[in-house]
Amino acid sequence: MFNPKKLLKALPAFLLITASGTASYAQSAKKPEDNRFTKVVLAQGVQEPMQFQIMKDGRVIYAERKGKIKLYTPATNKITVIGDFAVSTKYVNKKGEVSEGEDGMQGIILDPDYDTNHWIYIYYAPVGDVAKNTLERYTWLGKEILLNTKKTILDVPTQREECCHVGGGMLFDKDKNLYLSTGDNTFSRASDGFTPLDERPGMSPEDSQKSSGNTNDLRGKILRIHPQADGSYTIPAGNLFAPGTPKTKPEIYTMGNRNPWRLTIDSKTGWLYWGEVGPDGSQDNMEKRGPQSYDEFNQAKKPGNYGWPYFVGDNKAYRKYDFATKQSGDFFNAAHPENHSPNNTGNIELPPATPAFIWYAKGVSKEFPLMETGGNSAVGGPIFRKEDFKNAKRPFPDYYEGKWLITDWVRGWINVVDIDDDGNYKSMERFLPELHLRGPIDMKFGPEGDLYVLEYGNGYFNNNPEAELIRIEYNGGNRKPQVQASASKTAGATPLKVDLSSAGTKDFDDDDILSYQWTITKGGKPFKTTKEENPSLTFTSPGVYKATLTVTDLKGAKNSTSVTVKAGNEPPVVAVTLTKGNSSFFFPGNTVAYKVSVTDKEDGSLANKRISPSLVSVSANYLSEGYNMTAIAQKQQGVDATAKYAAGIALIAKSDCRACHAVNKKVLGPSFIEVAKKYKNDASAVANLGKKIKNGGSGTWGHAEMPAHPALTNNELGSIVRYILSTATPQKVQKTMPVSGSYVTTVPKGDNDNGSFIFRAAYTDKGTPSAAAISGENILVLRGPVLDVSQASAASDMNFNRDSTIAVVKKAGAYFKFAQTDLTDIKNIELKLSKRSSGTDAPGTIELHSGAPDGKLLGSFSGSFIGLDNVKVPVTTPQGKDDLYLVFTGTPARVAGIKFSNQ
């Protein structure tokens, strides 16, 4: 049947579908709705991808760090290897210790005239005794790269005693000049998170003055050359140092770079942009060393010196520091920087330092708050110019004209930077807030106007399963319907009556008429088709049925989704109830009595003893953060001892921890198991390690610097640390509790005492001859009795402060609602007040009602609130579970907390 749909305003949804829209409507400078963008996954499981290029026909060529060059072909959706190079990825220090580094295959790019000359350029660290990174050119005719056509364009001498910072991005400008970024090739983790200026004999791998600050070295630079047909190159006019300038390299376009990433050129202005990865320090030390770490996004309107290793961010200066004597000297001068290092082979006097365009540290940035907090790794991105996509199918709208899209490898957002006509920063906003990338390492627009992103994944030097190549398409025309499908029952005994529903289906365009079609299959074979919007069906024979809802709009755009129904076995019904104690709150040290019931249509029940208690899993766990972080624990089948660490696991998954740590192996930092073993018997480990995660630091596990995480609360830090410490002991399935009994709600030592106890019971039935087994479970949550005002189920006529920690009564009749709350054993409801030092001293009244704001009166308080820290509303008529209302009928109060008390 047909159903007219009106225009729906944009919702903050991100459509994970896989096809683009049709013809575009006229574009305007108005910000497009997020639902006009579609994420398309092109390739998954790519292995340590680095840089990519999109060809005119939509094929994507990309480099993997371990040496392979691969080609993704959209027509076949296949990935093929077109080149495999022997690359160096290891470092061997003076002690003979071998470690993994960042070197390897770093970059690939096609010649601007590839269609006629078929040249491809690669930048990598070749194996061998000669420490270098090399830029080579080959002929590629579309299959395998022809290795016998090699032309060595440029060698960049390096050191391979210590990691890191390779750079490696490449870019051609409109004049066919090739830009190549190179890192400072310096081990910085021995510098306490500050700048590496170690001038002691033999320590040049830890002195960035040999490279970034050296006018006569190709490292820590962005180079600009003009390749020639014979494999040589010329120097374009206008580089930083003219050819023949003593003690300089004419290839240098910018210097003072630490690890420049992902170059882009504004096709209209010709200005160069890139991301710049900073050091690791989380705290300033201006007395001894200088500023903390800042990552940067930079702009070069002309050649220049970008400050490293003497300056960072907006030219924040470091101090001269003697690593031998530990003595500090003066701050470096950005107007007149000088390089006096014995490892410098270039000029002493350097060009003035250019400040960063955007800069941000581990903590909150006052200048650029959208950058978020925690670990960081700036990755550049493209500037959109519509003129570059004249005949494209899906160019981004005019709203993005001239704006720079940037990303961060650790933080995973995309931000849009607005730049004025003079090249000055104007503003910044989030692009698709629902989208979170996993290790974005390269990002650029394709020939059809789509935004491509290459994701490395969440851990260094790993073949991360989440690594993928994606495309984000813009649909400026008619959008597909957003389809939702559900079933009243997804499993049950036959005959099984199921109501199918299309509720939630939306269409975002004006005056669309939607048609619905449900196609039900069994074992892949047709079973039934109906054009009803919300049909009811009865399944009389056992089996697995798939109900697919296809919705089509008036212009023919369609979209589908499915729901699965299993007929032939009724799911077990499991319940956990308390026979003694309050069923809403726990009180530390009190004893509650519980009982589990299980009923299964085919198996019987616990009550009639056809189901054995030994087959029912029963557990209780304490979560110090409360119940909101327990989604993982809820979904676990069986009783898993790690359920109590669900909050910590979830926090680690959404933070930057996995970039530097793994459970059982060293990455940049120690494994969780190593940390757990080291602090196994340390009673202060939770507090001390939590503090270190929050503030950052280094030294305990070598030179690696832990970034600060100032946004994490103490409870969240505790959850993370407790999970890490738990990894020292292999987690076993914990012994199930009896199906009935008593339990003492004892809060673990050192934990927040206002979390939640989670009682869980689960049973998996035996299945039937024609249907598989089904599991059922039930969870009972006893939360802490102290609530923030924001935790009330609802509030009426209340004004909340900015962070919702205080509620101010606006007028008589205002109330808090607490849905289905148990008053068993509750003697008082205590309200913590934010003191009023003055005001009308008229008596205030607070009443407790059940069922409705004017329902049965269960208790009340009357009196003045002036000067009070708290008031108690005695519960004079206690009863069981109901909706409760705290109603304010007198003088306004400022409420900061609510406690249900059994005292």
From TrEMBL:
Region (Disordered): 190-217
Domain PKD per the UniProt entry, residue ranges: 481-565
Domain Cytochrome c: 643-728
Signal peptide: 1-25
GO molecular function: carbohydrate binding; electron transfer activity; heme binding; iron ion binding
UniProt PTM comment: Binds 1 heme c group covalently per subunit.
InterPro entries: 6-blade_b-propeller_TolB-like, CBM6, Cyt_c-like_dom, Cyt_c-like_dom_sf, Cyt_c_ID, Glc/Sorbosone_DH, Ig-like_fold, PKD/Chitinase_dom
Protein name as catalogued: PKD domain-containing protein
Keywords attached to this entry: Electron transport, Heme, Iron, Metal-binding, Signal, Transport
PROSITE patterns: CYTC, PKD
Amino acids binding heme c: 657, 661, 706
Keyword Electron transport (UniProt): yes
Organismal lineage: Bacteria, Pseudomonadati, Bacteroidota, Sphingobacteriia, Sphingobacteriales
UniProt source species: Mucilaginibacter pedocola
SMART domains found in the cross-reference section: PKD
